[in-house]
Amino acid sequence: MSEKTTCVVVGGGPAGMVAGLLLARGGVEVTVLEKHVDFLRDFRGDTVHPSTLRLLDELGLYDQFAALPQRRFERWGFDLPDGRSVNVVDFTRLRLPHPYVAMVPQWDFLDLLAEAGRQEPTFTLRMSHEVTGLLYESGRVVGVRYDSPDGPGELRADLTIACDGRWSQCRREAGLIPREYRVNMDVWWFRLPAVKGVAETLVPRFKDGSLVGVIPREGYLQTGYFIRKGADAQLRARGVEALRRDIADAIPELSDAVDGLKSMDDIKLLDIRLNRLRRWHTAGLLCIGDAAHAMSPAGGVGINLAVQDAVAAATVLADPLREHRVTDKDLAAVQRRRVPATVVTQTLQRLLHAVMERAMAGRMPAPRKLLSVIARFPWLSVVPAYLMGVGVRPEHAPKFARRAPQANRPARTAPDA
């Protein structure tokens, strides 16, 4: 079975759904292919930063987003030995309509975008459609091959946008190889029972080489325990009791909650990668989001950078796609627009990794001198707040995609055919 569309978006994550929605609002016939039957994935990034909240405002979707179950954080701080808490990041100092980070299950966020897309006549979302390869004609990508519940098929398109993540099948088939940057840590993700008063400001804790971060969610604590890269098997062999002790030593308030870890099977490994393509595109194909540049969890900015890539792509490409005249120069323009922000953000993440690695190795204490300076001059907290919450080059919704606020309506969860 072979079909035709103007633009096929591979991957229904934040970048893919935003790109699909905005292009459809620009009058482009667009089809998003998502390999899973629904958006219910555990331990996805769930941070929605102020720049993305402003984008939702511009798209007329903020009121619906605000109605979703969520936790909101206005500050990010550390505890000093004298008992004081220092706000290293203070989003309330930003002059933005929504100066906070919203913690929202990503499946709810994606369902919201999918429902908004369904209101556009040129938007199609196909769940349970796994892309298995690219279609070529005369050296140009002209669409994709896929497997679906109805069997294999082909979808031909003027442009394929790869939003299929850090292990991108499209990127690999196109021969685009990212440059890898050294990262000496991975992270274990797991859930702990909710504990009143814990992690109200997203405070990470260092203790004897252990770094633990806790994010409060609805009814539980999503917890990240950083480990040396490649040490997963060795540390798992210590058993769950050793992990419970490490967590309780770092965050004594969790001494009872650690009993919620029943076995090491409850622990999921996140392989931290930091890489970037030298060239984000080839004839007929554009990579954005993690497919173009995998980000580390540092700062939780990966989703928001991917969303900004999608906004830039739609802004630049909507007109040439609608008129069926998209060229390599158009694709290169998207990369030029987004590369500076990506480079600066990844450079800051690499510096933060260096500090974290030294602290985990016991070669430096938690940065108390820096914390003391910020405690003395609290207005300095606006700098990291801007870098985390807004970014180097924030993107605004193009005029053709803007809408007035819509009335709240329940999101549909049934997948499209």
Helix and strand layout, with pairings?
Layout: E1 2-10, H1 14-25, E2 30-33, E3 47-48, H2 50-58, H3 62-66, E4 71-73, E5 75-79, E6 85-90, E7 101-103, H4 106-118, E8 123-126, E9 130-137, E10 140-148, E11 151-162, H5 169-173, E12 179-180, E13 185-193, E14 205-207, E15 210-217, E16 220-228, H6 232-236, H7 240-250, E17 268-270, E18 275-276, E19 281-282, E20 285-287, H8 302-322, H9 328-360, H10 368-376, H11 382-389
Parallel strand pairs: 1-2, 1-11, 2-8, 11-20
Antiparallel strand pairs: 3-7, 4-7, 5-6, 9-10, 10-11, 12-18, 13-16, 13-17, 14-15, 15-16, 19-20
Query: What is the level 1 CATH name of the largest domain?
Result: Alpha Beta
**CATH homologous superfamily caption of the largest domain:** FAD/NAD(P)-binding domain
- The helix/strand class is alpha+beta
Q: Main beta sheet: strand number and arrangement?
A: 8 strands, mixed
Radius of gyration: 22 Å
Tally of extended strands? 20
